[in-house]
Write a structure and sequence with these properties.
- The chain is of the alpha+beta class and 290 residues long.
- It contains 7 helices and 13 strands.
């Protein structure tokens, strides 16, 4: 295949695969699909800076009829702006012996190569977001150690912590727990009976159920006995709207074959008071150990 043909193939890959890639990645990834992804600005290159705005809480007024109820004072709507730098690049690539396999899968809705590239990139992104988990350890402590079981009493205690921290309810509260903790949830009548819970929409391929204020989902990407409970605003994630695909000849490396890669830029950080907007539970005696 000539250089011109490789460039043409890259253009076709970008045309057919790029529009599907990021929406599918966000849909399949639990944590990335749930954190705050709203920002203003453009992401075109590494080092770009975008802004996430969060409305500052304000308070109304009470007036006495017959005294001062005919007038009022207005409060200017204020936003707290947080800058997020696009300083990470996720890349995943494969070496191929020939490009025929790419050509045959180019317009397929179930491309093995595209899905494999997505899975590798998704796994790396998920691990990066979990590495940013850093709950407050001041009183009350949001880092819960030695949690042997995620039963109704424990979920209730976590709900109390969230309520005391005044988590907003508009965007919902979420819990991502490993299979061991999720088994505890399923074995608790209070957390599974139709008398206590209500089915919710599908998130990341799972039917979410409201349990004591949380949408609890199974996340097998962490180790045993680990759970992350959070409000979406605990973390800000900004990503390019489309990834970049590229295919190249390996002959310059004195090799026969081709390399196909996908990459995209992103930035992430804890949000305003983010350390108090998430809770990490683990059976370990100390530390997060994500």
């Amino acid at each position: 295949m000539s250089v011109t043909d490789i460039n043409l193939l890259t253009e076709q890959i970008q045309k057919f695969w790029a529009p599907q890639f990021m929406p599918a990645l966000r849909e399949k990834m639990l944590l990335a699909s749930l954190v705050n992804k709203e920002y203003t600005g453009d992401i075109k290159k590494e080092g770009d800076q975008v802004t996430v705005s969060q409305l500052v809480d304000s308070e109304g007024q009470i007036r006495t009829v017959g005294t001062d109820a005919d007038v009022f004072e207005s409060t200017q709507m204020a936003f707290q702006e947080v800058a997020v730098v696009v300083n990470k690049r996720i890349v995943h690539s494969f070496e191929l012996q020939e490009t025929a396999s790419v050509l045959t899968q180019l317009e397929s809705k179930e491309s093995v190569i595209r899905d494999a590239l997505m899975f590798g990139a998704m796994k790396k992104l998920n691990n990066y977001l979990y590495s940013l988990v850093s709950p407050s350890t001041s009183s009350p402590d949001h880092l819960l150690n030695s949690i042997s079981a995620m039963d109704a009493a424990q979920v209730s205690a976590i709900r109390l912590l969230a309520a005391q921290a005044k988590w907003a309810r508009e965007k919902g509260w979420y819990g991502l727990v490993d299979p061991s903790y999720y088994a505890d949830v399923l074995n608790s009548t209070t957390l599974t009976s139709a008398d206590y819970v209500d089915d919710k929409p599908v998130i990341g391929g799972q039917i979410s159920q409201q349990r004591m204020g949380f949408n609890i989902l199974e996340d097998d990407s962490r180790g045993a006995d680990k759970g992350l409970f959070f409000h979406p605003d605990f973390m800000y994630l900004v990503m390019q709207s489309q990834p970049r695909f590229k295919i190249s000849d390996l002959h310059s490396n004195k090799q026969f074959g081709y390399v196909i890669s996908v990459d995209f830029l992103l930035g992430a950080k804890l949000g305003v008071d983010g350390s108090k907007k998430h809770i990490w539970a683990t059976a370990a005696s100390s530390g997060i150990g994500v």
